[in-house]
């Protein structure tokens, strides 16, 4: 049986040949811009120096022309709220850098490993950027988890594109002898104390330089640093909306199984909500309204929805596009689901990418058909303007064990 | 590890020694072991006939019939084919829709690890000893787990509930019909054999080795299984001797009853099927040899992330492999994943590839899981069609559970466990529209009368 796949080879060759500045033209594509240009048919997208150089130019002199007739070009998908780059094998502690209890200032970005096997695998799902987040160690509870960062999935050593992207706080259900009341209190106290320092500061002459934590909290209070709050109970979400207004927070909710109960308030307060499209079980008493239709309902109410992959979202982020299909089957619009993995993520976290517009990052994916369908395959992926392979060690394993050889498999490479 | 207490061995031996010296007076009552003390009370309740017309039918046995009719009478498939000329109590026009056998998940923890996942609901894993063959997971099943309803909405008509994987021997598994019920017995699949959960690899050695108790290593795992089977073989021999002597008119004392060894003996007698959590190629190969050493069949390997490395061996030995399409990387033993694992296992001669969930989420969409595998494999050069891929979640799953003569296919005489899909179940947008179990409609997406709600969810707001 010959199960070797030619397109994988082609992808591998392309990725190694794109070292110098070339002009790539993707022609005749159906382009989902995720801007107010909407969907362009038979369009040409020109990539140069890592950026989208032009869309539908009068003429183009390209080094590489990719005929995308009958194919769909979308912005690269952006994963979020996982530990991509901070984890290789979950149960191998020395390969995991996501869990730490240093608290509010914990910035795991320097531990990011661009060579992890998870990255080429994630590219199979059209993921081109990712918002990685820290967590507390297993069994620990606390409010402040640390800071998120953004990396592209080029696998290059310079792939961290944004550090200190958002502050992650956990205000959800707590086990043991603790109350979500005290979690909220300690969050509010941090905000209130810093606000007081900022407003009373001008009266005092002998100010010390603010500590790094104080600087961070100042950014939070100025709305410069988004705060992602894990919370699901509807009454708590309303409290958070009130806090956003009181302190000028740039608030994002993650989880939000019961967010549908307060969807109008969330929409009005312009709070993006990160949900899993497949969360539909009452995992606890904060999630009695978990439902496959929730992503669509939130969208309809005007909430900016972001999709992420539940469970082990680091190893499995590739399947986000399928989750989007499930969201669409249950009421979300197709365009809304694509936004929920591209422009909505970029907008909420204030990062570059997530759209196909002149001047934006050239992270784009060419699909053979509807990006959400199982039958659709990826034709090519460009990250930062360069064509990258979607081959991973998983493919090498398959090839090894499906290649006929008169020698032991160990010699098939 | 506590196995066969010395006193029991002495008792067994003394029984053997003195057996032939028993008096020949009137025999005492014979001691027999009730093998089905918690019997199924599930009764198929459909006596009406249903005709599904003009559907794309995947039979579950590799066939696809376009524009076909399925005729259900008294809870059984009566006929399947084109233009059936029969009359039915109700007719469903399924033009444009697809019909498959009811979907079967041979690896679930619903009811034992139910939603909500609160402390009081952690009933799936008796993590107190590496051998807990004495526990029966059916005694943990909470029939009100809302997950059963969600699974039914995804077309699941039968499922095996397994204990967890911390122990070398985790206990007995049970196969259920996915019908709403107040009792476990009301769901229990009549005539389905019991399963025994075994576990290889990292979990047992981590859980017990971490407490300074055997097993601490993979070789410790193997020693643990072997010691247990030696004990079980001795137990079986003692009972068989008792039965033979009793039948010969003697008056022997019955061996001491041990419910842990009852289960292991059930495996040696071929009455209980092995379901073995086992990821790695070399471990599965050793579990096959272990089964030959003690004279039982190694059954179904679950998770089997490396099954593709030994696909031929699994086929030769007649093992099913119940696999995920794509879970990986959470442990070292789950590192060598291939998206084509199921397809490679399936391609071997005499194979039995199954897609399982081990998840209260993906159990709701095993059709999607099969679609992922089919399309990944086809991209890699395979040529797998829907009518074949559906076997992984229907007929092959039934075979793994020993119920393939009863369900898992659309063929005359089989239980009418049937799903009508709104389109090809291999589309991401597909949804189960109607689900039948033994001919009775148990779910209808467009009729709330057929949408069961768990007691737990009732009145919540």
Briefly, what is this?
The complex is a heterodimer of chains A (413) and B (461). Chain A is of the alpha/beta class and 413 residues long.
The largest β sheet of chain A comes out as: 8 strands, mixed
Order of helices and strands of chain A: HEEEEEEHEEEHHEHEHEHEHHHEEEH
- The CATH topology name of the domain at 35-44 and 102-408 in chain B reads TIM Barrel
Structural class of chain B: alpha/beta
**Portion in helices of chain B:** 25-40%
Q: What is the count of helical runs of chain A?
A: 11
Biggest sheet descriptor of chain B: 8 strands, mixed
Please report the first level of CATH classification, the CATH class of the domain at 35-44 and 102-408 in chain B: Alpha Beta
What would CATH call the architecture of the largest domain in chain A?
Alpha-Beta Barrel
Cα separation of the termini of chain A: 17 Å
Structural features, described:
The complex is a heterodimer of chains A (413) and B (461). Chain A has 413 residues and is α/β, with parallel strands linked by helices. Helix content of chain A is 26%, strand content 23%. Chain A folds into 2 domains: 105 residues, Urease, subunit C, domain 1, CATH 2.30.40.10; 276 residues, TIM Barrel, CATH 3.20.20. Chain A has 11 helices and 16 strands. In chain A, strands 1, 2, 3, 4, 5, 14, 15 and 16 form an 8-stranded mixed beta sheet that branches. In chain A, strands 6-7-8-9-10-11-12-13 form an 8-stranded mixed beta sheet, sandwiched between helices. The longest helix of chain A has 21 residues. Chain A is globular and about 65 Å long. The two termini of chain A are 17 Å apart. By secondary structure, chain B is of the alpha/beta class. Chain B has a domain of 317 residues: TIM Barrel, CATH 3.20.20.140. Helices cover 26% and strands 20% of the residues of chain B. Chain B contains 11 helices and 16 strands. In chain B, strands 1, 2, 3, 4, 5, 14, 15 and 16 form an 8-stranded mixed beta sheet that branches. The chains are: A alpha/beta (413), B alpha/beta (461). The interface between A and B is large, with 49 and 51 residues.
